[in-house]
Amino acid sequence: MKESGTPFTEADLHAYADGQLPDARRLEVEAWLALRPGERERVRAWMGDNEALRERLGVIAAEAIPVRIPTRRAPAPQWRQFAAAASIALVSAGLGWFSRGMAGIGQEALVASAPAARNASLAAFADRAAIAHVVYSPEVRRPVEVAADKEDQLVAWLSKRLEAPIKAPNLVAQGYELIGGRLLPGERGPAAQFMYHDGTGQRVTLYVARDVQSDGLRDFRFEKSGPVNVFYWTQGPFGYAISAGIEKIRLEALAREVQRQVSL
Amino acid sequence: MSAEIDRQIVACIPSLRRYAVGLTGNREAADDLVQDTMERAWSRIALWQRRGDLRAWLFSILHNVFVDRARANRRSLIDSLGEEEADVPVRATQGDMLEVQDLDRALARVPLEQREVLLLVAVEQMSYEQVAKVLAIPIGTVMSRLSRGRAALRAVLEGRAGASKLKAVK
Question: Do A262 and A167 touch, CB atoms closer than 8 A?
Fold first, then answer.
């Protein structure tokens, strides 16, 4: 887009209309357009639309800020009230999908109670992870039982309960910071959930449980459960599932990083 | 120090409102969106920790709030976007007020994902890189949404989209 001398693309024309080209390139595009009235008109119309939109919406920006929009950091008690209300609203928003998941669990529980079924299946494991994500990730006040500032204690506690050494992967380089973790009832014994968030508050959870049966199919799998994307696999004594409402490709990168770190 | 950051955040509110009105086409919904955005922003200001572009950070929070809400109302949103607008015939009109209404209507017909990019570029005058960051999408996707969004807006304003859209719905 920016190198001079290369042929023009549609992207160059947009960048020209938006004033995002370096000077030299801008002059080249201008000269090129001068010889092509059809293209010139098209670009001119875009520039006209930019201006019309700016003018139309500029009126809004000139207004006084409505009183209901908070213009300062909220005092803590008021914030807690809002947080409680917000988490209830978010959980109920997820409920339609949640009850679908619960129906699945009922069945799995029946299967698991049969003596022959020693291990939880990998797909049911992914469902549980997705449900745990939907239930706990909107939690504003208490998203985790043990916060990341006590990471050593958190990891020691979860390792003890899961009866094998477990790690909280570090995803800071990927833009996600550990909030903390909690212990949850898994299908066969306890499961651990680690929660992370990025600077915009987008949350990602990593769900870890033991005795997850690999069913012989490909061992690094993807599932979409309602709004939640999940990558899951087995590694060592554990099954891992990473869940978030983010794009598949970004979640896969996080999953690969977790895989890499837990194998170290 | 933190007072200065707070001041800069407040200074972004008018443009967040402008963007939200363009996005939703409805003042009430827009102020709901900005209210939620600011509540999230104030509670997470400690997380921002002076990393990067404050304005892009606020717009990305607004985007996340918007996406969360759109998910919750997916059906009603699609209905209102697809059908309500299609009933209004689009034709050349005279006078400033009518032109403004035409622009609002045309914008409402641009698919949401493209409308986001178009508004961030045209009205907020963000660089394509900033838009990619705010929406957490690759820059190639920014360019293709911009291109399609502009074509969609033009088609409605030039009266090329009205008839086909009506047929598609009926």
Answer: yes
Which of A57, A93, A202 is the closest to B22 by Cβ?
A57
Greatest Cα pair distance in chain B: 59
Neighbouring residues of B135: CB distance < 8 A, sequence distance ≥ 6: B60, B63, B116, B117, B120, B142
**Cβ count near A153 (within 10 Å):** 11
Nearest one of B152, B74, B137 to B107, comparing CA atoms: B152
A201 contact partners, CB below 8 Å, separation of at least 6: B40, B44, B47, B61, B64
| Average pLDDT score, chain A | 79
User: Mutation test of the interface with chain A: which of B9, B100, B123, choosing the one with the most A Cβ atoms within 10 A?
Assistant: B123
- Across the interface, which of B18, B38, B128 has its CB nearest the CB of A69? B38
Distance CA B45, CA B64 (A): 16
For the segment A42-69, what is each residue's pLDDT rounded down to a tens digit? 999 999 999 999 999 998 998 888 888 9
| pLDDT block averages, 10 residues each, chain B of length 170 | 81 95 93 93 78 88 89 55 38 52 90 96 96 95 97 90 44
pTM of the model: 0.54
Mean pLDDT of A139-168: 87
Q: How far is CA B80 from the centre of its chain?
A: 16
Closest CA to A155 of A168, A142, A137, A171: A168
- Euclidean distance between CA atoms A208 and A39, whole angstroms: 57
CA dihedral B65, B68, B73, B74 (to 10 degrees): 120
Chain center to CA of A83 = 20
The pair phi, psi for residue A115, each rounded to 5°, is -60, -30
Q: Which residue of A has its CA nearest to B2?
A: A73
Is the CB of B118 less than 8 angstroms away from the CB of A53? yes
